[in-house]
Design goal:
Blueprint (H helix, E strand, L loop, with lengths): L13 H5 L27 H12 L3 E2 H4 L5 H6 L4 E4 L25 H12 L3 E6 L10 H14 L4 E5 L7 H8 L6 E3 L9 H4 L5 H14 L5 E7 L5 H13 L4 E6 L16 H14 L3 E4 L9 H5 L6
Helix pairs in contact: 5-6, 6-7, 10-11
Amino acid sequence: MTQTDYDPTQQQRGKAKLSRIPVKIESNQPSQPKPDWIRIKLSNNPAVQRLKTRIREAGLVTVCQEAACPNLNECYAHGTASFMIMGDKCTRRCSFCEVAHGRPDPLNPKEPEELSSVIESMGLRYVVITSVDRDDLRDGGAGHFAACIQSIRNRTPTVQVEILVPDFRGRMEKALDALSQAPCDVFNHNIETAPRLYAQARPGSDFAWSLKLLSEHKKRFPDIPTKSGMMLGLGETDTEVIEVLKALRDHEVDRLTLGQYLQPSEHHMPVDRYVTPEQFEKFKIQALSMGFDHVASGPLVRSSYHADKQAAGEVVD
């Protein structure tokens, strides 16, 4: 896409999305082959296609598809999904993320009802709701989160709702005020990586701000568990991982996910290293010793992967 045919209302991915980030992605290292322990489980289960069709017919979006999650087939085969609200175009340009950038469409006022209807028809007991960044909205989209939660409560009151939110940067008070109208069951905001890598990996975000968001939500809602996660392999050191985990515990984060970063395209940040399953297990042991209530740590672990089992304290492989 050239400058002359640039259309901010259209989805931008890959090179078009990442050409304007402040720290350019340059790597002279050859691509690393995926190790044997990176095994994505495929499925021919017809439930996968049925769920895809049901979601598409409802006009909904899942982060499973938009972010090219490696666990999509496994989760869909079990009839579970993590829903992404407020459209499929993000106002940020994170260089690790596959979700498209662009000028978002106006909010769909029918989305809360459409979402709760699909959740009811699927017979779900635990759902994860996430979103693109909506820096164009005064509350960052928190009010829309609350509307979706309330609609789910009205239709299926026994369903547990975990929300995976953006950082609401510059809008924290408005966002937390809005979320107080329909509190969630688990509040998740990913710290993603070490602060040293933010300018390249998370332009527009701030490490200290993300920690404050998690801390402020805990102060307002002390009985609601907070959760955060990191992707390993972006260039962080083991020492930096431990420093981030300590910072999360200092801000009273209860639950943790650690997973391997997988490069979505040649234009995204390259994989710096593949962390071994043994090292993931060591991080898990260290994190539990710091006081996290539950830790899911492994190459294919993602924030929403087996979130119901994580919430129930079950072991996640």
